[in-house]
Amino acid sequence: MIPGDPFHVFSTWNDTIHFCEWQGVGCGRKHQRVTALNLSSRGLAGSLSPHIGNLTFLRIIDLGNNTFHGTIPQHIGRLFRLQSLKLYSNFFQGELPSNLTHCLHIRIMDLRHNNLQGRIPPELGSLSNLFHLIVENNELTGTIPPSLGNLSNLGVFALSHNSLEGNIPFQLVLLSKLEYFSLAFNQLSANQFTGPIPSSIGNASRLFEIDITMNLFTGPLPMTMGNLHDLQRLFCFSNKLGVGGIEGNELMNFFNSISNCSNLQALDLAENLFRGLLPNSIANISTTTTLLTLDGNYLFGSIPVGIGNLVNLRTLALNFNMLTGSIPDSIGKIYMLEKLILNTNNISGEIPFSIGNLSRLGILTLMGNVIEGSIPSSLGNCTNLNGIHLGFNQLTGTIPSQIFGLPSLFLLFLNQNYLTGELPLEVGNLRNLGKLYISDNKLSGEIPATLGSCQVLEFLYMQGNLFKGAIPPSLKQLKGIQFLDVSLNNLSGKIPNFLGELHFQYLNLSYNMFDGEVPKEGVFENISAFSIVGNNKLCGGVNVLQLPACPTEPSFPLFFIELEGTNNKLLQPCLQKSMIHNSHMENFFKQPMGFSSDNLIGEGRYSSVYKGILESGEKIVAVKVLNLNERGAGKSFLAECEAVRNIRHRNLVKIITSCSSIDFRGNDFKALVFEFYGEREIISAATGISYNHQSSSMGIKGTVGYVAPGRIMEIVDPQVIVEEKELPNTSNNLEVSLVSILQIGVSCSAGLPSERMNARDVLNELHKIRKTYLSVGGQGDKGLGMIPSHVEAHL
Q1: I need a surface site. Which of 185, 332, 430, 638 has the fewest CB within 10 A?
Q2: Banded model confidence at residue 47, pLDDT cuts 50, 70, 90
Q3: pTM of the prediction?
Q4: Calpha distance 774→767 (Å, rounded)
Q5: What are the binding positions for ATP in this chain (predicted)?
Q6: What are phi and psi of 342, to 5 degrees?
Q7: Could you tell me the fold of the domain covering 562-675?
Q8: Residue 597's Cα: distance from chain center in Å?
Q9: Running DSSP on this structure, what letter comes out for residue 436?
Q10: Is 624 annotated in some ligand binding site?
Q11: Minimal CA–CA distance to 118: which of 90, 88, 138, 91?
């Protein structure tokens, strides 16, 4: 009968051991008769044998919390000595045995959490010693037999979570020893308890809990409840207690009477169709009350100032009514308050600063009112807040940064207000933030990069504001993001590719000023999971978008440069005009060229110059890399970019491209790429110096790492040696010419500009050297043209 025995309870049930020593068996001391079966929570499975009726001395049966099934044997009715029957939390079916009425001494009948069906036998009313009748969480039907009113010793009556119907028999509430009365949640069928609560309930003076939740009881609430001085909990949620009384007066009269219940802890009258003025007498209920809910009614008027008297309240819910007026400052006196729920009313005025006194507050819900003014900074004192709901009001001003110091905040709803200013950088401090709703305000500025620190964020709604700029790269850290809406703003730039790497359920980028190619990966593969309408400069994307193809841009050199000590790690590509295609990625700097000391050809305050080779065309270039750790380098970089963009000069080195990007370490990287000055003649360079110094009326302005024009010849590259076949009778002349040139270089390298040769004199001296060399060596222009190969000067 009991095949399931995971703990081997019945291994001791054999003839080698006296049955009084079997596990779970209790016997009387005198006659060694079985008086108790205590086998609860043993994992037993099977059915209950009818032979249990043969144990006529049984007083206690406790088989609770197992997996017994089948029906309760009628033979239990033979156990006339039985005092306690506990079969709770099993899978018993069928009806309650009617012959349980033979168990006249039974005091406890606990059959909850089974699958029992049928009606409650009226015969149970003859069990005059019954103290606990607990049959909740079954499938019982029908009405409560009036005969149960004969259970004069009944203290606990629990019939909740069944399918019972009808009225409460008035005889039942005459039971003077009744302490716990629960008929809640009898809604599993179309039938529910109806009618008024009998006024005779006031005679059950020992009642400490009444639960009639989710039935169809009607009003009025009996004033006799004020006689229940031991009453601690009254749960009347979701009935029709506001129907049947004198409209507008039933609550006032009830609160006047219930104020006599000095031990009251919880009062739930939500969703009962109460109408009329919220009475001031609500503030007169017991100060021991911790829960007061009147939400979902039709109450109007203002919240009484006396509400501050209820100093032990932990939950105050007055939402979904028609309350007006302002939130009283006295709310700040309820220091124990954990939940303040006032949403969906017509409450006006400002949020009182005193709300900051509620240091235990965890949930603040004021949405759907007409509250105005600013958000009080004192909310920063409520360090236990995990939910702030202030949406759909008329709040103005900026979002106080103090809110972003709340360590436990998970929900922040500020949507549909008139908030201005920027989203504070401190938003990144909310490491537990899961939902942020700031849509439909007048917030401006850029989306703060610190938002990427909110790594548990799942819902981010920012639409309908004035945000500008690009989507910050830091948002790629939001690995748990599911919904992102930044529509109806002034955002610009490219749609970041990393958005396709996040696991969105929906992404809305519509009605901004995004441009460029739409990504094709991730969320962008599912047309129903994202929106980009209203961005007229977008192109590409999946075919179903029917966007124009992205234009093919001329290729610009893409280069990767080796940093010293980085073990061949590459920088991110730097692009002129930020336009490049993957097909051009083969154009990178040849190795081992790169940012190593071997390729360093000059240094200044803000930058260093390196030589490199572009694979495309074998072009040698000079790369000027800024030291961004030097203060002012970034600003000077912008100035130099502006200068080279606007200045044209026959002797200025041509700029190929500029670069502003990040390296693989995530650090800023800025550089300028110039033509390498290795094939120009010294005289041509000197002519440029002379022009700058003597012929041009425009002075040269300082730029990043600027060196005075007289020092342009100080950077000498000894590596570039052009093999040249020496001709006879030229060695001595060449040596003299080189010495003369080097003397000019030394003179031009003097520390003070006043001690250097005049640029025009330099030019004249070089012409003389050339003339002498040609007249002696007879090499013509060919020989002179090779001089830069030995003393190559670079800008």
Answers
A1: 638
A2: very high
A3: 0.67
A4: 11
A5: 624
A6: -130, 15
A7: Phosphorylase Kinase; domain 1 (3.30.200)
A8: 47
A9: E
A10: yes
A11: 138
Reply yes or no: is the peptide bond before residue 472 cis, omega within 30 of 0.
Answer: no
Burial of 542 (0-12, 13-18, 19+ CB in 10 A): middle
Strands 594-595, 562-563: pairing is parallel
Residue 554 has which token pair?
């001329």
In this prediction, residue 510 has a pLDDT band, given cuts at 50, 70 and 90, of: very high
| 451 in Cβ contact with 475 (< 8 Å) | yes
SS3 96: coil
Residues 759 and 744 sit within 8 Å (Cβ to Cβ): no
Bond into 709 cis (ω within 30): no
How many whole angstroms from its chain centre is CA 576?
38
**What whole-number distance in Å separates Cα of residue 689 and Cα of residue 761?**
11
Both tokens of 164, joined, read 């019972």
Please state the separation of Cα 643 from the chain's center in Å.
46
Q: Is the pLDDT of residue 776 over 50?
A: yes
| Nearest-angstrom CA–CA distance, 757 and 781 | 26
Write 754-763 long-range contacts (CB < 8 A, 24+): 756/710, 758/693, 759/686, 759/689, 759/690, 759/692, 759/693, 759/694, 759/709, 759/710, 760/690, 760/693, 760/694, 762/686, 762/689, 762/690, 763/683, 763/686, 763/687, 763/689, 763/690
The dihedral formed by the CA atoms of 355, 361, 365 and 369, expressed in degrees to the nearest 10: -10
* Percent helix, percent strand, percent coil in the chain, to nearest 5: 25, 25, 50
Structure tokens at 579: 């336009």
Hey, how many other C-beta atoms are within 10 angstroms of the C-beta on 316?
A: 23
Q: Which two tokens stand for residue 399?
A: 């979002």
Rounded Cα distance, 780 and 110, in Å: 121
Q: How many helices and strands, by DSSP H and E, does the chain display?
A: 7, 48
62 phi and psi, to 5 degrees? -130, 100
User: Mean of the pLDDT values across residues 513-532?
Assistant: 95
User: With contact defined as beta carbons under 8 Å apart, do 185 and 207 qualify?
Assistant: no
